[in-house]
Amino acid sequence: MGFRIPPEREIMKQTSAISKTKSIFQKMALLLLIILGFSACQAVEEDYSGVIGIKAPAFTLFSTEGQQVRLFDYKDKVVVLYFFGNKSPECKATTPALEDMLITPYTGRQDYVVLALDYWNGDPAAVKEFKDETGIDIPTLLDAGNVGSNYKTFYNRIIVIDKDKNIVFSGAQEASKDMAAAKAKIDNLLEN
Length: 192
Description:
Blueprint: H1 7-40, E1 60-62, E2 68-70, E3 78-84, H2 89-103, E4 112-118, H3 124-134, E5 140-141, H4 145-150, E6 157-161, E7 167-170, H5 175-191
Parallel strand pairs: 3-4, 4-5
Antiparallel strand pairs: 1-2, 3-6, 6-7
Helix pairs in contact: 2-5
């Protein structure tokens, strides 16, 4: 007769082995989440200039006022798209300069419009809060993350579309750093 482990001890050994395995899997999952988290925080260094010269992708979104807005509602107009993040401090800080450089100088023009698009797909209350905090008084559109992807852009960026609906400017850096170049492009388009 050989040595036999009592059933209680066998169960304890199995339970201990299962706990160790579970602990290892939990640690691996945590490590994976940390790695993914760090990679998600990396700055976007992609080249978005490839969209310049192509037809602007069509979109239909709703404004904070509940109105449906389509890009092609703005026929024969130069259209500026300002992609923002509704909780982004940088976007909140940039918006007054956007108002000063790209909105106010063109007030009253019938051939020009600026649209603000929420890249972060925030709920309407968060987007209205952004609009109220910044004082921006232009159509502000909801759920525009997919539109940003179609335009190969990111939040805190500017896109300029000519009257024929071609993309003629795609900001590759923060909106505040691209505003002067966007304004020069806009002035050139509106002179012709």
